[in-house]
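Q: Here's a chain of 223 amino acids. Please give me its 3D structure as tokens.
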Amino acid sequence: MDWLMQVVDIFLHIDDYLEVIVAQYGAWIYAILILIVFCETGLVVTPFLPGDSLLFAAGALAAMGLMNIWILFFTLLIAAIVGDAVNYQIGKKLGIKPFKEDAKIFKLKYLRKTEEFYERHGGKTIILARFIPIVRTFAPFVAGASTMCYRRFGFYNISGALLWTASMLGAGFFFGTAPIVQENFSLIVLGIVFISALPIGIEILKAMIVKYRNKVAGSADKE
């Protein structure tokens, strides 16, 4: 459980960690952030890496003059776009091979449901996924595995990355240095994570309600 506590500590004190890294590595901080954003969006095995909170903290430090906001924006934008593109290609290459009926993570029914979700909501799925932790990592992989048109995926990939990077960095840059934010940074980070995860929580709740109603209806039919 030590590793889990360390991950939680990084999430809650991401600003402190960034300040230490900036002090130790200087300009190399950009390369480190690029690598984290790329891995979080491009590798399906690293959904636990910080995303929203990392960009918010980076924007706040840029407002303090510790980093250049424009270098951050363009480099992390490219990292996010390339990450999703690589994840899509991995999904396209592997296809449905990792998905099994009895798998713990890559369940075949999840792939089918995702394909149906793409059919209903279209490319906005890729944009919305940018703002949902974990889903942000899996969405491009599933898009590739479900053979979503790459030109269509590419358009929404770029649009989503642009909105995500600009909003998270911008929020940190313009509001991260406010005294009330600095004094309650841990709560702000938790709030960002909560708001980001809220859409998927609503979807899960809806699915549970539908499942419950179907179960009740099934029981009534038997009677």
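Q: Can you summarize the key feature?
A: The first helix runs from residue 2 to 12.
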